[in-house]
Amino acid sequence: MTNMFGEYNEYGPALNDGFEDDQVEMPSDRDIRRGNSDPSYDYFAISRPSQPKRAIGLYVAEQAFRVPLINSQSEWESAFDDGTAKLRSEMKQDYDGWSGLFSSHIVRDPSQTEERPGFTGELGKLVMLGLRSGELGGTEYMRYLRGFMGWADTHAHILEQAMLFGADIWLQQPTASRWRYIKGTNVSIFADPHVEGRYYLGATPPDSRSVGGFTFDAGEYDEPKMFRKHKQPIVARPFIEAYEHIRQLPLFDNTQNPVLELQQDLEGNIHFLQYYKTGQTRNFIEPFDLPVSEDSLVTSNVRGITTPEGKEMRLYMTPNKMPKGLAGNGLFCSIIRPLRMHVMFASKTAELVLHNAYISFQNNHFDTSPLFRPPLAAGLSSCQGTQEHVLKRLNEVTEFTSFKGGYQFDYEVVPYIDIKITSNGRQAVIESDWKVKETGYDDA
């Protein structure tokens, strides 16, 4: 069978298979011609599919990549019976807006029961049988019947947290798309937009729930690296090759460095799961000398650049809500504050996110948003070259603003320090008098 992309491969799903919420509009011949002639053309930003994971999955599958989409009702039932049926959340904003907010779910065999009180026993079996047959939609199941923190509860919780933090977000109700779970290593990958050959990976092997964060530079792609909580190493090359092939497909903006989610099965094959447009434009630069002095804070855990002259800004210290003046300025995160979701909200507004620990896909304790959302991000886990008196003063400031100064309960006044940061993408230097000042949250 052929279509506008040529011949279907074995992973190419039918476009109108009767699933609720699963129909997608595919690009026209004109869209394809424009994508082939204009590297910056972004079909999915223009078309705004209501289910971007599925729509992009269809497109990527037709370019001869493995994509574990469910193609038909019979496939759904087969996956359901063997325990690999998976429901994933879908919203328009998953493409380049607020993403990763709602959970996915591997559905159990219909002979098993749900653990939520009220949906056990015979009633639970009826729910699962209805989901298997299609009489009960995946969207309704995930919103109301899945169990603790279903999508309806999650939606309310997110909006509540956004309101408490003062983040102005619009959040639609998600729908469900159907996929097949592939056992293996889950990988998120993002190419540094300014350091040529540098890639960030977050990997979770099948025998672990912990995400290991890795940075691979040119010359290291075949070098096995292993997270301390894992039993198997990760080799970057197959993921980098898949990333670059998919990133450069003609209907994507090829000037962008997206985040891709991939899955490597137990045989070593790579499967595509998701494309997230970060807004980070590829612009490689050569490193320039940094203004390092005895009073400078130096870190090599950095992503993003400034001009050689550096950038002056306020660094808001562990705020309880979104400062009005955060745009163009920085946010400092301690180990526990702000909350992970609040860090995600702030990462789309702040010019800089400076974390007391690290920036990475290693999200076992911290949100990953600073790695790919703000223009500039840095962590204090790699401060070699920083003098002891600077580290001591920084520790005093962070202790005072995070715990001792009483700001953790203050929703009227936010502490900040004035800084100048200079980054060449490999290292960042921060200069400051380290004097804590304060301003009202609503002041510009």
Describe this structure in words.
The chain is an alpha+beta fold. It is 25% helix and 22% strand. It contains 11 helices and 19 strands. Strands 11, 12, 13, 14, 15, 16, 17, 18 and 19 form a 9-stranded mixed beta sheet that branches. Strand 9 and strand 10 form a beta hairpin. The chain starts with a strand and ends with a strand.
In short:
With 444 residues, the chain is an alpha+beta fold.
**Shape annotation:** globular
Characterize the largest beta sheet: strand count, sense, and whether it forms a barrel: 9 strands, mixed
The average pLDDT value, as a whole number, equals 89
Structural class: alpha+beta
Number of helices: 11
Report the helical percentage. Answer: 10-25%
Through-space gap between termini: 60 Å
- One letter per element, helices H and strands E, the order comes to EEHHHHEEHHHEEEEHEEEEEEHEHEHEEE
CA radius of gyration is 23 Å
Number of strand segments: 19
Low-confidence stretches: 1-18, 113-118
Share of β-strand residues: 15-25%
